[in-house]
C-alpha cells in the first residue's frame, strides 16, 4: 500500500507542470484576445464617420495581434475545448479597409461580426482557464490527501515495529530471569554436592550408622 501511494503521489506531481504550461499559454491567448475585443470596440467607433487612415491602421494592428495567438494543446491533462482562434487566424476576421465598404452601416456590420467571433473565443478561453485552475486545485488536494495517507501508513508501520521491539524486550527479559534463576539453583546444588564430597559425613551418637563407623 505504501509503495502504491508513493507512486500515486509521483504521478500527481508530474501532472502539475503540464497544467502550469497550459495555464500560462492559455492566459497569454486570453490577454491577446481581450485586447482584440477592446480594439474592435474602438474600430467600431471609427467605422461610422471616423478617419479612414486610423481605421485601416487599427485593422492592420488587429490582424497582426491575432497572429500572435498560439495553439494550446491540453490533451495531456484532458482539457481540449476548442476556442476557435486557430480557425479565425486561418480565415481572418473578415474586415477590409475603410474604402472597400459602400457605407458606414456595412462597415459597422463587418466589425460587429468580427467582434462576436472574438468574444465567443474569449468566453471559451475564460472557461478553459477556470477548468485548468480547478483541475490544478483538485490535483494539489489529492497530493495532500495521498501524502497524509503515506504518513499514516508509515506511522502505523513504525508503531507496529515499536510494539514488536517491546514484545521482544519483554520476552528477552523473561528469558534472562529464567536463566538467572536456573543459574542460582544449579549453583546451590553444586555447592551442596561439593560439601558432601569434601567433608566426611557426621552421624548422631547411638544410631546404626554411628555403630558401623
Q: Quick one: overall form?
A: rod-shaped
Main beta-sheet annotation? none
Order of helices and strands: HHHHH
What is the number of beta strands? 0
Low-confidence stretches: 207-213
Radius of gyration equals: 46 Å
Average pLDDT taken over every residue: 81
What proportion strand?
under 5%
Helix- and strand-based class?
mainly alpha
User: Separation of termini?
Assistant: 83 Å
Helix content: over 70%
Number of helices: 5
Characterize the structure shown.
By secondary structure, the protein is mainly α. Helices cover 79% and strands 0% of the residues. The protein is built from five helices and no strands. The protein has helices spanning 2-47, 52-66, 85-91, 104-198, 208-212. The longest helix has 95 residues, at 104-198. The two termini are 83 Å apart. The model is unreliable at 207-213 (pLDDT under 50).
What does this entry show, briefly?
With 213 residues, the protein is mainly alpha-helical.
Descriptive labels:
79% helix; single chain; 213 residues; mainly alpha
Can you lay out the helices and strands and say which pair or pack?
Elements: H1 2-47, H2 52-66, H3 85-91, H4 104-198, H5 208-212
Amino acid at each position: 500500500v505504501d509503495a502504491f501511494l508513493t507512486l500515486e503521489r509521483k504521478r500527481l506531481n508530474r501532472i502539475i507542470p503540464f497544467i502550469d504550461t497550459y495555464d500560462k499559454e492559455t492566459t497569454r491567448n486570453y490577454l491577446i484576445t481581450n485586447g482584440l475585443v477592446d480594439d474592435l470596440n474602438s474600430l467600431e467607433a471609427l467605422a461610422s464617420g471616423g478617419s479612414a487612415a486610423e481605421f485601416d491602421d487599427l485593422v492592420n494592428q488587429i490582424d497582426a495581434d491575432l497572429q500572435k495567438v498560439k495553439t494550446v494543446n491540453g490533451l495531456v491533462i484532458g482539457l481540449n475545448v476548442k476556442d476557435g482562434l486557430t480557425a479565425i487566424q486561418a480565415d481572418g476576421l473578415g474586415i477590409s479597409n475603410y474604402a472597400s465598404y459602400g457605407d458606414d452601416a456595412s462597415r459597422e456590420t463587418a466589425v460587429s461580426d468580427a467582434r462576436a467571433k472574438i468574444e465567443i473565443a474569449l468566453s471559451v478561453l475564460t472557461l478553459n482557464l477556470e477548468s485548468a485552475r480547478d483541475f490544478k486545485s483538485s490535483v494539489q488536494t489529492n497530493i495532500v490527501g495521498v501524502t497524509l495517507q503515506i504518513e499514516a501508513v508509515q506511522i502505523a508501520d513504525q508503531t507496529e515495529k515499536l510494539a514488536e521491539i517491546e514484545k521482544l524486550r519483554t520476552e528477552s527479559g523473561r528469558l534472562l530471569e529464567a536463566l538467572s534463576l536456573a543459574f542460582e539453583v544449579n549453583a546451590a546444588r553444586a555447592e551442596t554436592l561439593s560439601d558432601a564430597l569434601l567433608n566426611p559425613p557426621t552421624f548422631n551418637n547411638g544410631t546404626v550408622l554411628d555403630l558401623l563407623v
